[in-house]
Structures are given as structure tokens and as C-alpha cells.
Amino acid sequence: MRALKTRTATLAVLGLFSAAAVFAAAGCELSVTYEDPNPDSSIDAGIDSAGDSTTDAAIDATADADATTDADATTDADADATTDADATTDADATTDADARPDVFVNPDGSAANAEAIAKFQGDQATANCSALQNACGNPVAWQVGKCTTIYLAGFANLYEDLLAPGVTAGGRLQLNAAKAAGCIDAIRAIPLPVRTAAEHAAIVNACKDVVVGLQPIGGACRTNIECAPNGACKNIVNGAGTCAPLDAAGDRCEYPTATKRRSNTCSYHGVGENGRFCDNTDNVSGKCVDLFPVGAACVFDTQCATNLCGPDPDFAAAHCVDSYNELTSNGTCDYFTLP
């Protein structure tokens, strides 16, 4: 969450509540059932003939399949000529970013997959906010919409990339139904108000792989999570980038998603499994550095190896800690109840 008491509102708006906090509690009952949209896990890999990443975001894989069939069935010479002309126009407009290889979920399951991802995104936000509200004593003035908007980015901002336009329904992601249900259960089960680094890590581990990317190295992307594990979306221009290997220790790094809460190019969508994070969000001077140990000065949770950045008793500074009281450290209840 926030590091300094005076910054509670600012960091809360950014969704930088130190993670797991409050997510579980009695009275947070939530029945969650996910059907695996692609039980055979089949993936249709190929080159996007349109070459337009903007179109990719708006048209699902089923439509692409229909368009391909129509093209194959066309025999009229005039139609072919028109198609050639269109192709020439497309080629003129195509940029290097648009021409990169694209990979989509099996067309028969893409719509269901996008729906399942959106459902998971909403359900985990509801679970997080219900637990927080319960921990705060179910205040009448609780602002449900405010809380839900923040937690759509996921537990500990694990899924801030899903907030980027076109990503959830863009056909470049796959949801694991069993892990989705497990993540919701884990969010509901965390003790409150005090949480430890171990408890926080348990939630992260349960939730971090629910949604993963399908794009290979060299594939088109909008955000880090669209790339397959161990990849990152780099060199983004006008919303279109390329999946590339993660940045190594000491390398220049970026936060491709506009919200810049967690997802950076030093670890897979910023989870930090390799012990690194990007030390500056300006996308110019940041470098991949080691996560800070307990006792080190910090501003955000994502800088700490424990993933917990707690304020000192006098709230004059903050340091990486191995446990803290979610509600008193972060001003959570006031933030979601006061105007």
C-alpha cells in the first residue's frame, strides 16, 4: 500500500495498496465456478494476414477465421483485384510493429476465454473489496465502486495489464480455470488485519499464473502479460510493441502499461520471481536491480523482497518489513468511506 501516511489517498488511487491485505475475512462468501474455455489447450499459431495490431485488438479470432474462409472461397476476378488493391493499401500502412507474428487462442474458444478472463477480473475485485469492507466493520458509507475500480488491477496489482484497452478480449491470453478458482479462495482465506510476508507470498503464488500470455518472442503485444512467460513487451510505439526476453540485471527497463504500478520488463509482468524490479518508472533511466531486503528504505511494496513496504511508527519514512497491520498502516477504512 502506501508508504507514508500523508500519501494514503494518492497511492490508493493508484491501486498501490500493499497487497493482500485484507482479503479474506468471514462474511466474504463468494461462489466461483470457471469453465475452462479451451479444455484441450489447443492454440492456433500463425501470421496475422491483416498486419494491423489495432484491428487485432477489436476483432476476435473467430472473425479472423471467417474472413480467411471468405478469402479462400473468392474466385471472382474483380473481387481478387479489389483484394489486391486493399492489400497494397494495407502494406503501405503497415509498420514494423504491425507486421510481427501473432498468435491466437483456438478460434472456437477465444470468445469464451475473453469472457472467463473478464469474469475472473471482476470476481477477484469483488472478493478483495468484500474482505476489506468486512474487516472495516461493514461501514454504511463504504464506497463499493471506488474499491472495485482499484482492485480490477488484481491482488497486489498482479493484473494491471488487463486494464489496458483491448488486452482482455484481444485473443493473446489464456486463463487457467482451476487456478482462477484457487486464487479467489486464497484471497478469501488470508487473515486480517495483520498479514505476514509468507501469507502475502501465498496469495501471489496462487494468483500470478491464472492468466498468461500466448505471444512468443518476436510476437506483437500491447502489454507484458500478452507475452508468454519469461517474455516482456518492449519498444512500444502507438500501443504496439514486440515480445522480447526479460531485461537482465543492470539493463535498462520499462513499465509498458500506462498505470505503471507493477508490470515492468525485469520479471514476467513484474511478479519479481527472479528477485528484480525496475528502479524508475520514467522508461528512460530505470535499471533492473535486486529487490530490497527487510529494513531497507522503500516507497512501494514492489521494491521489497517481502513485497511489503511498511510505514515507520511516526509515518516519517517507510522500510521493507516482513509483516504489518493492513488497516492501520494504510488507512484503508477511511480511504474507502470518507469523501
What's the pLDDT, averaged over the residues? Answer: 75
Give the amount of beta strand, in percent. Answer: 5-15%
The neighbouring-strand order within the major sheet is: 6-8-7
**Integer-rounded radius of gyration:** 22 Å
Provide the structure class.
alpha+beta
Straight-line N-to-C gap: 19 Å
Count of folded domains: 1
Low-confidence stretches: 1-109
* Number of DSSP strand runs: 13
Order of helices and strands: HEHHHEHHEHEHEEEEEEEEEHH
Secondary structure: helix percent: 25-40%
Largest sheet: 3 strands, antiparallel
General form: globular
Q: Total helix count?
A: 10
Structural features:
339 residues, alpha+beta, 10 helices, 14% strand
In brief:
This protein is an alpha+beta fold.
Describe this structure in words.
This protein is α+β, with helices and mostly antiparallel strands and 339 residues long. It has one domain. 32% of the residues lie in helices and 14% in strands. It has helices spanning 8-13, 53-58, 61-73, 77-93, 110-135, 144-151, 177-189, 197-207, 326-330, 332-335; strands at 43-46, 102-105, 173-175, 194-196, 211-213, 220-221, 231-237, 240-245, 276-278, 288-290, 309-311, 318-320, 323-325. The strands form six sheets. It has a three-stranded antiparallel beta sheet, with no helix packed on it. It has a two-stranded antiparallel sheet with strand order 1-2. Strands 3-5 form a two-stranded antiparallel sheet. Helix 5 (110-135) runs parallel beside helix 7 and helix 7 (177-189) runs antiparallel to helix 8. It is globular, with a radius of gyration of 22 Å.
